[in-house]
Amino acid sequence: MTITPDISQELDQLRGQSFPQTVQFVGDKQLAFDLDFTAVEQLSCSLSSLRLTPPAGANLSLTTLEDWAKELSQRLTYLLENVSPIEIDPTSQKILVRSSQPSQQGNTKEYYEMLLAVDPSGCLNLRRYRLSGANAHRTPIDLVFTREVLIRLMNDLEESFNLLVP
Predict the structure, then answer these.
(1) SS in 3 state form for the chain?
(2) What pTM does this model have?
(3) Integer Cα distance of 64 and 162 in angstroms
(4) pLDDT in tens, the chain (166 residues)
(5) Per-domain residue ranges for the chain?
(6) Could you tell me whether strands 94-99 and 103-105 are parallel, antiparallel, or unpaired per DSSP bridges?
(7) Could you give the CA distance from residue 89 to residue 78 in angstroms, rounded to a whole number?
């Protein structure tokens, strides 16, 4: 992946700045990553979301997204929870991928959610949510990664996308 050095350099430059800030990286085949940073420290960073936009002319289909969702559930085993596809909507051409076993402490659950979409303005949106209390109202929370995990995640997202969308 050609953006790995760019990510490390950008994280170094973001340390000590004010947030939120959105930073875009573009990979080998023009797959764009938009990262909405809320904090960057020496060893870790926090993001409100991570989005991917496919290159112009990418031939995305629901079948391609299904294959990608399965690939991601096999590949992203280093996150806090494993993820797996839980809902496929052929009408909206979207797939919901979520933590298969949310983290739980007492009455609170936290989980990852990825929305994969056949959409030229964005094909993946990764967020994290918290469910608290009896009302089960979900609240977005930050994605917190070490620098190494963020770089690995971006490499895995790009590599898996490029395998499925030549």
Answers:
(1) CCCHHHHHHHHHHHCCCCCCEEEEEECCCCCEEEEEEEEECCCEEEEEEEEEECCCCCCCCHHHHHHHHHHHHHHCCCCCCCEEEEEEECCCCEEEEEECCCEEECCEEEEEEEEEECCCCCCEEEEEEEEECCCCEEEEECEEEEHHHHHHHHHHHHHHHHHHCC
(2) 0.93
(3) 11
(4) 567 788 999 999 999 899 999 999 998 888 999 999 999 999 999 999 999 999 888 889 999 999 999 999 999 999 999 999 999 999 999 999 999 999 999 889 999 999 999 988 889 999 999 998 767 789 999 999 999 999 999 999 999 999 987 7
(5) 4-164
(6) unpaired
(7) 27
Rg (CA), the chain: 16
Residue type, 11: L
Residue 155: CA atoms inside 13 Å, Cβ hemisphere, count? 13
